Amino acid sequence: QVQLVESGGGLVQAGGSLRLSCAASGRTFSNYFMGWFRQAPGNEREFLARIRLSGGSTYYADSVKARFTISKDNAKNTLYLQMNSLKPEDTAVYYCAADIIGGFSQSHYRYWGQGTQVTVSS
Question: At 31, is the pLDDT very low, low, confident or very high (cuts 50, 70, 90)?
Fold first, then answer.
């Protein structure tokens, strides 16, 4: 089993920045992928970015590629999402996820955190 706990969400003004963290514990493998998703009220869960724990290759959704950066600290078993130039439409619950497949759909991930709320005011 893998346990994931997100933190770092909050209220920020448009144009501001936040860094989300996701602490992983339990059974993890170096060939796993970890990803970030978000879900706004009434919307489906949206893929944002993923990173491979071995090697660190990354992939981003076009909607956030220029503003968000995914990274990891293997020594701390922690995943990060640096979010810059935030917009009101970025308001959502942000989730981290992990699994060996590492696709772009929530169905590709078995392990999820509880989510952290990000609210961007205009």
Answer: confident
**Residue 6 · residue 19 · CB < 8 Å:** no
Q: Per the structure block, which two tokens stand in for 21?
A: 């963290």
> Locate tokens 């969400």: which residue?
9
For 1, other C-beta atoms within 10 Å of its C-beta total 8
Strands 68-73 and 78-83: antiparallel
CB 30 within 8 A of CB 55: no
Measured distance CA(79)–CA(39) in Å, rounded: 18
The tens digit of pLDDT for each residue in 82-118 reads 999 999 999 999 999 999 888 899 999 999 999 999 9
Which CA distances in Å does 38 have to 28, 45, 70, 91, 119?
A: 22, 6, 14, 9, 12
As given in the structure block, the two tokens for residue 112 are: 């999820």
